[in-house]
């Protein structure tokens, strides 16, 4: 807890130092910027303005003293260049860096004075250009109002220079004061930080070393086997938590050692029962192995039988497929026969129709022959030959009618028989269709039987593999039983060694540790727990 407070206080002081340093550095930077970008440049530019004005004034006065016109014009050109070109530049540069109201007021005064001075200066230059003006008038203009305005401008410039110098001095003084203030505050904060750090270091050291000494004493006693140590815990910081953990550890060790001491005999009893259980388990494992071998042999025989049934069903399925194909071909042929009989019946009906036509023609021919005979009788001797021909034609017509009648009877009988045959062929076709459908059903059933036999064969094969695997597991269990017997003997020896080791610890007389949960469960559960701990696979079996 103290270490945490120490860290918080240190970081708070560092934060204060940092924030104060930032504020002071910002203030110093502001004043330095004012000094470097405002006050000093203003003084420099004002000096340039004064120098340009002096140069222009000097050139104007020299033009009066020049004896030749060429010299006068040269001085006037120099004065014009100075006042018209150089002066506006430096004045504009100064106007851009004006920063205060007072400086603006003085600049406005200077600007008005400069404008008036330029008016007088232009009048002076005009008099010199005319050449006829008297020297006295020129001198009066140069030394009268012009000189007074020039002196006023110089005074105003001096005031502006003094204003900027005072501003620079104030900025430098403010920066120096900020520096001195920062040094003082930093010194105070550093001294306070050192004092707080040393004080907290002493307190934290004492709060750590005393509990650590107690913890070392308790740990030494535990190392000697003495679990009777007792101590008082104060505070809730990390050392107090350490002592509390040591106290809890001491109590847990007392409880654990007591439980181990009370459970040593139960372990020995459990080891004996494990040995008895191993003997019984070994006998049952041998019986199980014999039963598995018999089961494996029976499964092999069953697998062979099922495989034979599967092969037979496969062959029957192939035969049923061929029978289905033959029945389908027979049905196709019977269908063709039915179609042929129907075509014959249709042709017989057409022949009967033709015979009817012939009978009708013979009847009409007979009537015509009768009419011809009547006409021949009317003709007398002239129609006797025609009557003979008509008689022959009638005889032929009667014979044709008799023949057509007989053909019609034969055709009618043939059509009846063809119709009967076509009906029988249709019944045969339907019977073949029924046979084909039944053969297909038989083929489907045989195919399902073949598939079921194949699945049975595969399942029996898997069962055989499972039985073989179970046989292998049984053999492994037998090996684990032997290992468990050896582990039980080793466990009994280790329980004796455990009793010897536990006797080293010194417990309080009033301490009555609770009985372990696994001891209250009885020897049988103890044996089961130990068996599961040493051999999980054997315990599962």
UniProtKB/TrEMBL annotation:
<dbReference type="Pfam" id="PF00672">
    <property type="entry name" value="HAMP"/>
</dbReference>
<dbReference type="InterPro" id="IPR003660">
    <property type="entry name" value="HAMP_dom"/>
</dbReference>
<dbReference type="Pfam" id="PF12729">
    <property type="entry name" value="4HB_MCP_1"/>
</dbReference>
<protein>
    <submittedName>
        <fullName>Methyl-accepting chemotaxis protein</fullName>
    </submittedName>
</protein>
<dbReference type="InterPro" id="IPR004089">
    <property type="entry name" value="MCPsignal_dom"/>
</dbReference>
<keyword id="KW-0488">Methylation</keyword>
<feature type="transmembrane region" description="Helical">
    <location>
        <begin position="6"/>
        <end position="25"/>
    </location>
</feature>
<dbReference type="InterPro" id="IPR024478">
    <property type="entry name" value="HlyB_4HB_MCP"/>
</dbReference>
<dbReference type="Pfam" id="PF00015">
    <property type="entry name" value="MCPsignal"/>
</dbReference>
<feature type="transmembrane region" description="Helical">
    <location>
        <begin position="183"/>
        <end position="204"/>
    </location>
</feature>
<keyword id="KW-0472">Membrane</keyword>
<feature type="domain" description="HAMP">
    <location>
        <begin position="206"/>
        <end position="258"/>
    </location>
</feature>
<keyword id="KW-0812">Transmembrane</keyword>
<comment type="similarity">
    <text>Belongs to the methyl-accepting chemotaxis (MCP) protein family.</text>
</comment>
<dbReference type="GO" id="GO:0004888">
    <property type="term" value="F:transmembrane signaling receptor activity"/>
</dbReference>
<dbReference type="GO" id="GO:0005886">
    <property type="term" value="C:plasma membrane"/>
</dbReference>
<dbReference type="GO" id="GO:0006935">
    <property type="term" value="P:chemotaxis"/>
</dbReference>
<dbReference type="InterPro" id="IPR004090">
    <property type="entry name" value="Chemotax_Me-accpt_rcpt"/>
</dbReference>
<dbReference type="GO" id="GO:0007165">
    <property type="term" value="P:signal transduction"/>
</dbReference>
<dbReference type="InterPro" id="IPR051310">
    <property type="entry name" value="MCP_chemotaxis"/>
</dbReference>
<keyword id="KW-0807">Transducer</keyword>
<feature type="domain" description="Methyl-accepting transducer">
    <location>
        <begin position="263"/>
        <end position="492"/>
    </location>
</feature>
<keyword id="KW-1133">Transmembrane helix</keyword>
